[in-house]
Amino acid sequence: MMPAIAEAAFNAGKLTIRGVAEDGSIDFGDDEGEYANDGECDDLRFIGSGMTATELIRDDIMHDATDCRTAYEAGKLKLNRG
Ligand SMILES: [Ca+2]
Question: How many domains does the chain have?
Answer without folding.
Answer: 1
